[in-house]
Specification:
Strand content: under 5%
Number of strands: 2
Shape: globular
Structural class: mainly alpha
Largest sheet: 2 strands, antiparallel
Strand order of the largest sheet: 1-2
Radius of gyration: 23 Å
Helix content: over 70%
Distance between the termini: 59 Å
Number of helices: 24
Length: 506
């Protein structure tokens, strides 16, 4: 009776609680732990989602947690929606969001800025919901899903590599930003040493997987909100709120359409790689709830504060102004804001590399060990200051991502030339939850659409490049699919790479 009540407790859904009471966590001692594992396994068998002994052993024996990098998430590893919403809000509470709000405030009235944030958030929510639903239904990461959502094995490898290069680069950039805050707050060490220390600390979190990241979000996101709130209230207390809301913008005028695409562009890549997070969700309704709450709170709370600060300070550099005028609180704001965007940079990068190795070489590499390698690489690059010279290149890579979402959404919900294959493993009883037996090797039409849409995003000056690229990719892929031009060239077996493995010696 007591055990049953303990399992029904709301604490069972808390990431902090799950860190110690996960059904398959062998650290739970004694009869209590055994009963929890038996009951969890019984529930999995009843739902047709038994975990293979081989995969469970691999998951336990890895350094940290492999987090089912190449497999479907089993039901017992899924979470309620609110830890996801906290993490989504944490991603949107980074310092760049203050800058976006301040840019709107400098060029728009408060009313128009509010509308721009509303419409921009709506665009992000639509993209994140559709890509998130794909991730939740299939339980797979973005780069693995790409194999059956239009790209084939070859295109999936390219996506995984592009995600890894881009996000490791941004991981290093964010580590360097945090290092400057630590120098101001603590000193003692030079900036390069703090870059290493911060990058490796975030790496340690990501090595242990999604649960540690959820645990970190429960601390970092509220801490950032409280610290930033204190600093901002202190700054705005010198002004009349009514005057700030009614004051005219002092910078170059920004139209409502321009403001909307500015807001949408600020987090479009985060919406595109939503499956990396939503594969841990329990239902499609949870996707909608966490997306609306996380994105709306991030856009309205952080964005509108940026608008008010711009009206008060007459500058777009409001984050720097607040963090430098609030003493030790300022650097703490930077740290809390940076850690919650940087752990996801590294996490998605590790998933991309694991998928790349699997698709190209046909080999499984450990996600946690991959995370260590990428985290060390990003931290070292930040420490030596190389990444400051490559931000333009990283921004250019960002143009390649929006078409990916457009193609995936069109394939999964409209064309379904390959997406139907994902249902075979589910109907077989999720013992085959690893992956379907085979996937398209190359899809030439997809590569053409991807290239054209990326060029549109780069060179068409009207609107926002990332949004233009996404829409063009969706329309072109759907049209080619309906014309029967989306076809695969070759098939790849589940454990077969694009590069044949060397023959075993005898």
């Amino acid at each position: 009776m007591h055990l049953a009540r303990a399992e029904a407790s709301p604490l069972a859904h808390c990431p902090l609680h799950q860190t110690w009471l996960h059904p398959y966590d062998l650290r739970v001692p004694g009869q209590f732990g055994r009963l929890r594992r038996i009951r969890a396994l019984r529930r999995s068998l009843q739902s047709g989602a038994a975990v293979s002994l081989e995969n469970r052993a691999r998951h336990r024996e890895s350094v940290g947690h492999d987090d089912y990098a190449l497999e479907r998430i089993p039901p017992e590893s899924q979470y309620p929606w609110w830890p996801m919403a906290i993490q989504r809000f944490g991603q949107l509470s980074a310092l760049f969001q203050f800058f976006i709000g301040a840019t709107l405030g400098l060029g728009m009235s408060f009313r128009n800025a509010f509308l721009a944030l509303t419409f921009g958030a709506l665009v992000l929510e639509v993209v994140a919901v559709f890509t998130g639903i794909i991730g939740q239904r299939e339980g797979l990461s973005t780069s693995v899903l790409a194999r059956w959502t239009g790209f084939g094995q070859g295109g999936s490898a390219l996506i995984g590599l592009a995600i890894a290069i881009s996000l490791v680069g941004w991981f290093g950039v964010q580590s360097a930003i945090a290092a400057r805050g630590l120098v101001d707050l603590i000193g003692v060490l030079p900036e390069w040493a703090w870059s290493l220390a911060f990058g490796l600390a975030v790496t340690a979190i990501v090595v242990h997987g999604f649960r540690w990241m959820a645990w970190t979000a429960c601390i970092a996101a509220p801490a950032m909100l409280a610290l930033a709130g204190w600093s901002i209230i202190t700054e705005l207390s010198r002004y009349s709120l009514e005057d700030l809301v009614t004051s005219a913008p002092t910078g170059p005028s920004i139209s409502l359409a321009e403001g909307t695409v500015l807001v949408a562009g600020g987090f479009i890549i985060g919406s595109i790689v939503a499956p990396d997070m939503t594969r841990f969700n329990r239902s499609t309704s949870d996707i909608v709830k966490q997306t609306v709450v996380g994105i709306a709170l991030g856009e309205y709370v952080i964005g509108l504060i940026g608008v008010l600060l711009a009206h008060a300070l007459r500058t777009t550099d409001v984050a720097a102004n607040v963090t430098t005028t609030s003493g030790a609180i300022g650097p703490l704001v930077i740290l809390a804001a940076t850690v919650k965007i940087n752990d996801w940079n590294l996490y998605s990068a590790s998933l991309g590399v694991v998928n790349f190795a699997h698709t190209v070489l046909g080999r499984r590499i450990d996600r946690a060990l991959t995370t260590i390698g990428l985290g060390v690489l990003g931290s070292v690059l930040a420490a030596v200051g190389v990444l400051d010279r490559f931000t333009d290149f990283l921004a250019l890579l960002g143009v390649a991502f929006p078409p990916v979402a457009g193609i995936m959404i069109a394939e999964y919900f409209v064309v379904r030339a390959f997406a139907g294959e994902l249902a075979v493993g589910v109907e077989a009883g999720r013992e085959a939850r690893d992956l379907p037996e085979s996937s398209p090797r190359w899809v030439p039409a997809t590569l053409l659409v991807w290239l054209v849409a990326a060029l549109v995003g780069k060179y068409v000056v009207w609107g926002l490049g990332s949004l233009n690229a996404l829409v063009v990719a969706f329309i072109l892929y759907a049209a080619l699919g309906k014309l029967g031009l989306v076809r695969s060239v070759g098939r790849s077996r589940r454990e077969e790479g694009l590069v044949p493995a060397p023959a075993a010696s005898h």
